[in-house]
């Protein structure tokens, strides 16, 4: 649940930054740049920034001191504890379960309603649809294929009495043409729909539906949904009119106006496919007043948004570190829940580690029984008649010039006869400001 809240916070911050960016850099923005930026905002709601946390951690950014529960020979960061077999049912945990259950219930209901509505509308339309039989249809399609370098196969249908043009289907794309249009308008109408298909706008729409279901509690999601639907159309119009002169742009604007007027007369069958027809004034304005941007203008606007993305990505440092606690530390966690631990403040990071007096050598291997072996990786021999492998942990102790040290612990296996070690995943890495080992 904490991941979801951080995702919705990151997405909302970046969307707010987008709105400011759109207002301040309006003269330096194309509709395509706005649409790309909105897709990045949409992905921020879907993909947590935690994937970049490791990179920022490697930059040695200052870390806040953590409060640790210390008992005997083991220290445990209680905020990071998970176990394979049980959870600790505190009041906070129970509250989190209730909130997560409420969120999941509403999210599933919304997802079910939107999915069934989409599928029902799609099936009803395909049931009523008929193949388009315009004489010049194949010629126009072939011409557009070459112009747009579009190779995918698709079908073209019309629904009698319905003046709507849109496309459906991701795996098997279908273009639904409006039932009434002039022959000279066909190429522009088809070109608009093919650009939607070529860019994968239907997939973006599906992602938007998923984001709406996951973040239903966030009011900014509904603002994002409206903005994406609007900019999707204006950016598509921008692609259509690329290379047009003023007369051709004016003609395309008239086609949009005619299509909108015809569609409004049949709005009784409207659904989410027809939202673009509710208001075309903004689209016509952008078509008639479009201007060619210079490279330096695009670079300035792109650089500003890149800075916004970087600032937003710093939220990755707020994602918690989750570790699996071994059976040997379960008792410590249980004593912590019972309140039987003393408190200490230190700069130790990670999940747990042995106290400093268990470090006997700079490189050592400790088996499950607690026996410590001196390790010398440089002098190992790879030849061994019959390995006697034991499980345990490999630990390396490195001092630094400031008087501190780093202790890294890895899971591993060691042969008791030849001393060969197989080092596996990192368990913990502790930084000590003062070396006491």
Overview of this structure, please?
This protein is an alpha+beta fold and about 425 residues long. Helix content is about 45%, strand content about 15%. The radius of gyration is 31 Å and the shape is elongated. The relative contact order is 0.14. The model is unreliable at about 60-85, about 265-275, about 325-335 and about 335-355 (pLDDT under 50).
Strand order of the largest sheet: 11-10-12-13-14
Mean pLDDT: 79
What fraction, in percent, of the residue positions are helical? 40-55%
Q: What order do the helices and strands follow?
A: HHHEEEHEHEEEHHHHHHEHEEEEEE
Please indicate the percent range of residues in DSSP E strands (runs of 2 or more): 15-25%
The major sheet is characterized as:
5 strands, antiparallel
Task: Give the overall form.
Answer: elongated
Distance between the termini: 40 Å
Structural class, by secondary structure, is alpha+beta
* Unreliable residue runs: 61-87, 267-277, 323-333, 335-357
As an assembly, this protein is single chain
Radius of gyration: 31 Å
Give the beta-strand count.
14
Tally of separate helices: 12
Keywords:
437 residues; alpha+beta; 12 helices; four-stranded mixed β-sheet; 46% helix; elongated; single chain; five-stranded antiparallel β-sheet
In short:
The chain is an alpha+beta fold. The protein contains twelve helices and 14 strands. The protein has helices spanning 2-24, 31-46, 53-58, 91-128, 137-148, 186-199, 201-214, 220-240, 246-264, 281-288, 295-313, 327-338, and strands spanning 66-71, 74-76, 81-82, 130-131, 155-158, 166-168, 174-177, 323-324, 342-346, 363-367, 372-374, 389-399, 405-415, 421-432.
């Amino acid at each position: 649940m904490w991941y979801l809240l951080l995702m919705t916070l990151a997405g909302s911050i970046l969307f707010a930054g987008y709105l400011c960016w759109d207002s301040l850099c309006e003269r330096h923005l194309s509709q395509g740049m706005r649409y790309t930026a909105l897709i990045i905002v949409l992905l921020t709601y879907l993909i947590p920034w935690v994937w970049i946390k490791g990179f920022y951690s490697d930059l040695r950014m200052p870390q806040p001191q953590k409060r640790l529960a210390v008992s005997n020979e083991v220290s445990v960061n209680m905020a990071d504890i998970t176990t394979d077999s049980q959870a600790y049912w505190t009041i906070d945990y129970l509250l989190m379960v209730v909130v997560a259950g409420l969120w999941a219930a509403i999210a599933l209901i919304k997802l079910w309603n939107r999915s069934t509505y989409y599928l029902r509308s799609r099936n009803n339309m395909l049931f009523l649809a008929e193949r388009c039989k315009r004489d010049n249809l194949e010629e126009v399609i072939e011409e557009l294929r070459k112009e747009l370098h579009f190779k995918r196969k698709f079908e073209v249908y019309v629904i009698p009495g319905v003046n709507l043009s849109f496309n459906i289907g991701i795996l098997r794309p279908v273009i639904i043409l409006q039932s009434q249009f002039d022959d000279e308008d066909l190429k522009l109408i088809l070109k608009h729909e093919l650009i939607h298909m070529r860019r994968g706008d239907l997939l973006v729409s599906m992602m938007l539906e998923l984001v709406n279901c996951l973040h239903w509690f966030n009011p900014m999601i509904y603002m994002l949904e409206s903005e994406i639907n609007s900019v999707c159309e204006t950016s598509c119009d921008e692609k259509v009119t690329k290379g047009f002169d003023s007369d051709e742009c004016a003609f395309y604007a008239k086609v949009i106006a005619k299509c909108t007027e015809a569609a409004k007369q049949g709005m009784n069958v409207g659904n989410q496919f027809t939202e673009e027809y509710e208001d075309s004034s903004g689209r016509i304005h952008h078509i008639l007043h479009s201007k060619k941007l210079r490279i330096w203008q695009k670079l300035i606007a792109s650089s500003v948004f890149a800075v916004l993305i970087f600032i937003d990505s710093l939220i990755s440092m707020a994602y918690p570190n989750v570790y699996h606690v071994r059976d040997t530390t379960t008792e410590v966690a249980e004593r912590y829940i019972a309140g039987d631990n003393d408190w200490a403040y230190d700069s130790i990071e990670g999940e747990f580690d042995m106290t400093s007096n268990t470090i006997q050598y700079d490189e050592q291997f400790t088996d499950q029984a607690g026996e410590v072996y001196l390790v010398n990786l440089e002098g190992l021999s790879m030849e061994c008649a019959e390995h006697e492998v034991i499980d345990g942990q490999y630990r390396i102790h490195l001092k630094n010039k400031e008087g501190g040290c780093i202790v890294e612990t890895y899971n591993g296996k060691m042969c008791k006869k030849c001393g060969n070690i197989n080092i596996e995943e990192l368990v913990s890495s502790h930084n000590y400001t003062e070396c006491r080992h």
